[in-house]
């Protein structure tokens, strides 16, 4: 399908960045605990209030899709209703306190929240795999060196996306270990902190997206690729989630929202010029063209940007659960969860119907 990539005027900042709960509470208008109609007075589906748990720089189509293409599916998505944070915990707090309607996060982190008794469901894919790389610096040239006590590995907290990525990579490489087994780990929640630790030599191994990697390579000439994550990972990965109550009351909004994400992915995959334009709007200064091309090529080659809903399939969920339990990220009771306890597939299925109707 062909859709113009210049639907919106050029604007640098598409979200407001903050890590503070108090400030985020102000930025994300309260969605209220009382169910509202899905449509406004004009008949359009109401804009969805979204809290991103990390920077959207590495997720440009998925983060911008709702306001770029929501109109195609009857959704009046406002850019100002999308807030960027730097913490999964903060995003979930906003969701559970009804100050956000939809949040992003990793599969494992959401399942852990579900196990804590919160009625959250995954409903739309963002990226099943990543364009990131596991990199080493200095003398660290192989993934096996992560078991060396002298090699410091920068990760996020247990159950976080980086933790999840490492465990998938270890399994793919035939290493019978998980992050919890590593002898020398630094927990650094923010990607910028992990980048800084590699640059300074405080850490020697981390997961970086192509934009972070480009920054590191400007500071060091001894950076080595230990794993191209897209080659070594098959996962639900990073997803959109909402409360079960909200999804039950907002199936049409959720479906239109998800359709706009999948539509943006397809347009970006088909047109590097559109992806470049969107990325330049989101980042200041403009990212290097070579970095964008690496990210785009890897996304295209490995299907990183989903145009269907296979990453939310039951077999993929089961694989992720097994790896997370083995890693100690989730306790064994997670294996007793039913697919429907984790995923509400209805909006994603409806999203595919909406997209097919446009063809």
TrEMBL record:
Keyword GTP-binding: no
Coiled coil (residue ranges): none
Domain of life: Bacteria
Any one Pfam family match given in the protein's UniProt record, by short name: NMT1
UniProt keyword annotation of Transmembrane helix present: no
Annotated InterPro entries: SsuA/THI5
Keywords: Signal
Domain SsuA/THI5-like per the UniProt entry, residue ranges: 82-270
Gene3D superfamilies with a match to the protein in the record: Periplasmic binding protein-like II
Signal sequence bounds: 1-29
Name of the molecule in the record: SsuA/THI5-like domain-containing protein
Protein's organism: Mycolicibacterium vaccae ATCC 25954
């Amino acid at each position: 399908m062909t859709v113009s990539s210049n639907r919106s005027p050029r604007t640098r900042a598409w979200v407001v960045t903050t890590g503070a709960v108090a400030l985020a509470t102000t930025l994300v208008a309260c969605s209220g605990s009382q169910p509202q109609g899905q449509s406004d007075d004009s008949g359009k589906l109401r804009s969805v209030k979204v809290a991103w748990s990390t920077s959207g720089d590495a997720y440009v189509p998925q983060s911008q899709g709702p306001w770029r293409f929501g109109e195609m599916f009857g959704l009046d998505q406002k850019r100002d209703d999308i807030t960027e944070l730097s913490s999964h915990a903060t995003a979930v707090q906003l969701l559970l306190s009804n100050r956000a309607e939809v949040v992003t996060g990793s599969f494992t982190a959401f399942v852990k929240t579900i196990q804590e008794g919160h009625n959250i469901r995954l409903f739309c894919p963002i990226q099943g795999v990543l364009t990131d790389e596991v990199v080493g610096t200095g003398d660290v040239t192989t993934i096996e060196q992560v078991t060396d006590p002298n090699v410091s590995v920068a990760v996020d907290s247990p159950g976080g996306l980086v933790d999840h990525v490492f465990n998938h990579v270890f399994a793919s490489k035939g290493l019978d270990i998980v992050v919890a087994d590593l002898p020398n780990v630094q927990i650094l929640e923010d990607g910028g902190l992990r980048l800084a630790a590699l640059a300074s030599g405080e850490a020697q191994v981390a997961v970086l997206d192509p934009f972070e990697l480009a920054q590191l390579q400007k500071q060091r000439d001894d950076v080595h690729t230990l794993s191209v994550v897209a080659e070594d990972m098959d996962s639900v990965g990073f997803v959109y989630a909402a409360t079960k109550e909200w999804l039950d009351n907002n199936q049409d909004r959720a479906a239109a929202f998800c359709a706009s994400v999948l539509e943006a992915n397809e347009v970006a995959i088909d047109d590097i010029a559109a992806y470049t334009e969107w990325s330049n709007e989101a980042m200041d200064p403009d990212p290097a063209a070579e970095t964008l091309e690496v990210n785009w090529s890897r996304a295209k080659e490995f299907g990183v940007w989903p145009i269907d809903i296979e990453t939310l399939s039951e077999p993929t969920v089961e694989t992720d659960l097994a790896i997370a339990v083995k890693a100690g990220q989730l306790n064994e009771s997670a294996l007793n969860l039913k697919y429907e306890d984790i995923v509400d597939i209805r909006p994603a299925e409806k999203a595919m119907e909406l997209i097919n109707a446009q063809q």
